[in-house]
Amino acid sequence: MDNRPIGVFDSGLGGLTTVSALGAIAPNEDIIYLGDTGRVPYGSRSRDTIIRYATQALSWFTLKNVKAVIIACGTVSSVALPRLISALPLFGVVEPASAKAALLTPEGSIGIIATNATIRSRAYEATLAKNSRGSSVLSRACPLFVPLVESGYIAPGNAIVQAVIADHLADLRGNVDTLLLGCTHYPLLKDAIAQFMGTAVNIVDAGAETAQYALSRIKPTAATASGTLKCFVTDRPDNFEKVGSLFLGRDLTGEVTQVTLDS
Ligand code: DGL
User: Fold this and answer.
1) Which atom of ligand 1 sits closest to the CA of residue 93?
2) Residue 221 contacts residue 30 (beta carbons within 8 Å)
């Protein structure tokens, strides 16, 4: 048993989708969430910058005495994780999500959608090549999905949501058996994406897979009461509180603290 909290790190507020998945599986775990909202988006940045930001975040988590850190950010997981040095156990999204996609589609076609930096890294292709017998991979960057979600546009019936999804996913429709959502924000568009891709396509939520994977490897808490969630951000908390409340389906007003990450 280990009663220390679990750390969840993201470039912004999208990692709350992973918090939600953790809460559904292990509601008594305490969680410390760090969103680097002052420097989001990471998805358009260089590898060196992403590594530097993530290194600062991990030093911060070390001071918080967490038992492990889940790197919910698809960009950090793909671009920086192999280069990060930390005494803490680290769980990125690429391995668990790839394993699930390969299980669902061992020989067909797997689509991967994520930020520009994640797609450029080819981390999913490399991991899928190890995991699957003979599936092919089609990957696409979807740069408008993050700003769409950050602005609260997630309803499947919304015309703007539908237009952006149709534009970004047109050439994947009809050509993949499984679609892997390789970015924190995309699960918020899951219904709209599923509607566009059709019911025959399996959807893999990288954050949810990682929550499950990490929990099976982290010593559980002995606490029986409901776990707490403490959120920290690197910019003004107000937008995080507003959109985060939407993500989690509960009011975060007054519960988010602003911090500075030292270099
Ligand atoms: N958290 C990022 C990811 O999952 C999306 C937002 C960003 O570009 O920083 O890739």
Assistant:
1) 4
2) yes
33, 146, 234: which to mutate for ligand 1, most atoms within 8 A of CB?
A: 146
Q: How far is ligand 1, taken at its centre, from the CA of residue 217, in Å?
A: 25
Amino acid making up residue 245: S
**What is the chain's pLDDT, residue by residue, as a tens digit (263 residues)?**
999 999 999 999 899 999 999 999 999 999 999 999 999 999 999 999 999 999 999 999 999 999 999 999 999 999 999 999 999 999 999 999 999 999 999 899 999 999 999 999 999 999 998 887 788 999 999 999 999 988 889 899 999 999 999 999 999 999 999 999 999 999 999 999 999 999 999 999 999 999 999 999 999 999 999 999 999 999 999 989 988 887 888 899 999 999 999 76
Write out the catalytic residue numbers: 73, 183
Q: How far is the CA of 257 from the centre of ligand 1 (A)?
A: 21
Residues with Cβ < 8 Å from 133, sequence gap 6 or more? Answer: 106, 107
Collapsing DSSP states into helix, strand and coil, what is residue 233?
strand
Domains and CATH numbers, the chain: 6-92+210-258 (3.40.50.1860), 94-206 (3.40.50.1860)
